[in-house]
Amino acid sequence: MTTLHTTLGPLTRDQLGLILPHEHVFVDLRTPDQPGYAEADARDVVALMAPQIEAIKAQGVTALIECSTGGVGLRVGLDLAVSQATGFPIAVPTGNYREPWIPDWVAAASEAELEAWMVGHLTTGVDDTGVVAAWIKVSAGDDGITPMETKILRAAARASAQTGALIGSHTIKGRVVMDQLDIIEAEGGSANRFLSIHTQAEPDFELNRAVAARGAWIEYDHVGRDPDEAVLALVLKALEAGLEGQLLLSHDLGWYDPAKPGGGTPRPYTHLVEHFLPKLRAAGVNEATITRLTHDNPFDAFAR
After folding, report:
1. Can you give the pTM of this predicted structure?
2. What is the pLDDT of residue 191?
3. Residue 31 has what pLDDT?
4. Rg from Cα positions in the chain
5. Fewer CB near the last or first residue (10 Å), C or N of the chain?
């Protein structure tokens, strides 16, 4: 049976409803060589982030996808602490971000070693947390994928082919996404197990369409960050182009930042339900389509 692996165990489609596919509970955007990188007390993270989770639980949100990966502060133990404190499932990734956010050990590792590391996280759990990773998060440079990033992506493609896990990539340029899809397919992976994160950052809509035509998922994850009118226009354009079966919507917000005093001030995950979905309805988008965008598509993308 297809399930979404979460901090509270594997969950089936009928156990879930609305899923936020791109948010952050904990992020450190300093590079891994910086003093204090990714360090925080779990009690402090829970105190700051549990209210953010309780707010979306009250809206009917049933799960959140943690999109912080290796190199930008992935701390599965902290996700687990917030999850257990709120009784709310969080799906975590394995993988690593782009340069210069690559730890020395990842830079030195072979593709085979990285593949085995990811497969371990995807099958038996991340480190000593007991939490099985749901997916693989990578990235590529804005001007093109580097040899180091290619090594990570090749390992991810092989791990995905073994496990069925989704690969999601922070990639700004559509042409770079197309290069990534070529690499994944050359390694035996599948474009339909790839998610183009931040697809809205590519201004050429034809490249959005081209990525989807390859079979990949696309994600407009700027809800609540850009003006609703601009986001709404883009979503409607995608729906008119027939992309409703491959489109994900989220905020890319949060989070506890250990580089800031007290973790900083989190930005809530509530805008989609409170403001944006009513505007989609007012624009004539029917409930079946909204359910597909917010319930079915996230589950189908991240479950395996």
Report:
1. 0.97
2. 97
3. 97
4. 18
5. N
Distance, CA of 143 to CA of 212 (rounded, Å): 21
Per-residue pLDDT reduced to its tens digit, 101-117: 999 999 999 999 999 99
Residue from 76, 86, 106, 81 nearest 5 by CA? 76
Long-range contacts of the stretch 287-295 (C-beta < 8 A, 24+): 289/239, 289/244, 292/244, 292/245, 293/244, 293/247, 293/248, 293/249, 294/18, 294/19, 294/249, 295/16, 295/17, 295/18, 295/19
Residue 245's pLDDT band, with cuts at 50, 70 and 90, is very high
Residue from 65, 52, 26, 11 nearest 294 by CA: 65
| pLDDT cut 70: percent of the chain above it | 100
Q: 66: exposed, middle or buried (C-beta count within 10 Å: 0-12, 13-18, 19+)? A: buried
Contacts of 133 (CB under 8 A, 6+ apart): 5, 76, 92, 93, 94, 118, 121, 122, 125, 126, 165
Instruction: Give me the helices (H) in the chain, please.
Output: 42-59, 76-86, 104-108, 111-123, 147-163, 174-186, 205-213, 228-240, 271, 277-282, 287-291, 297-302
